């Protein structure tokens, strides 16, 4: 008797996390369950049906773009092939966003342009009784230089695909600030395609929202590209913040560096769900990616009892001919020796604690090139610490 093998729906014969199934059609993905690997940390009941199609009625997404005169902004049909240059959705919510988006937006920085101010994109939620979806592509021409600031604000249920296509020799700084109201839900995939000798600096600041999950995915299209993924997050009681990333080295002589830092606080007595964060960092070095140089780091500070952080770094290496590779992740309290040192010099314990935590975050925040944004995020960290002490 011959055994009959029934394949899992939409499974693909892949050996690495870089070869996972992708599709622009939500119906190509099965409805996920809580035991599925990519959804096992998040509470599906808290994302208002984004994963199974039972979300509240869809509303038009509000996207405001302020850009220098050299920049072109076009609204295109949702099925425009140009939107697909960075790859497809890798999970059902990202595919739902793609399928449901009424149109797409392409922001283009022309070849050789050096912008004298940042492109600012503001996405505003439509309220908790409505769901919004968006598809946005930022593309930078050959040898151009640009900074893009994307802010999410207001209340609502939102899912999107925010993609970045970095041209040959271009330099792109991106700051993604999820400054949602405390009751918002946001699931977003961000795909980066880096061409020859390009430089990408991508920073995520996650402070707002009830549930926020950002999934950066990096594809190196040509040799010589350099990508850094940085992030800061701060979760209070009732908040869940997840980062799930993939850096796919598939061509020679590229560099990547990942640095994410987070803090959590919130007592069980608040009556809210525990403050929780999850960081999953996958780095893949394929056999053909000789000369790769990569490192990823995730650091977490748990400031109160009743908070939980998960840190899962993964490194797959298929060739030994690389410049370097490594990863590190920690979850713990702040350094008691530093606290003792500051207190021994007359600094009160509460102020000493704030100084240590600000220093912890500044390693990431100081890399943000826009001073006003950097100062705003530093002030936001200070506000979180003040809230903890009140």
TrEMBL record:
<protein>
    <submittedName>
        <fullName>Fe-S cluster assembly protein SufD</fullName>
    </submittedName>
</protein>
<dbReference type="InterPro" id="IPR011542">
    <property type="entry name" value="SUF_FeS_clus_asmbl_SufD"/>
</dbReference>
<comment type="similarity">
    <text>Belongs to the iron-sulfur cluster assembly SufBD family.</text>
</comment>
<dbReference type="InterPro" id="IPR037284">
    <property type="entry name" value="SUF_FeS_clus_asmbl_SufBD_sf"/>
</dbReference>
<dbReference type="InterPro" id="IPR000825">
    <property type="entry name" value="SUF_FeS_clus_asmbl_SufBD_core"/>
</dbReference>
<dbReference type="InterPro" id="IPR055346">
    <property type="entry name" value="Fe-S_cluster_assembly_SufBD"/>
</dbReference>
<dbReference type="Pfam" id="PF01458">
    <property type="entry name" value="SUFBD_core"/>
</dbReference>
<feature type="domain" description="SUF system FeS cluster assembly SufBD core">
    <location>
        <begin position="129"/>
        <end position="360"/>
    </location>
</feature>
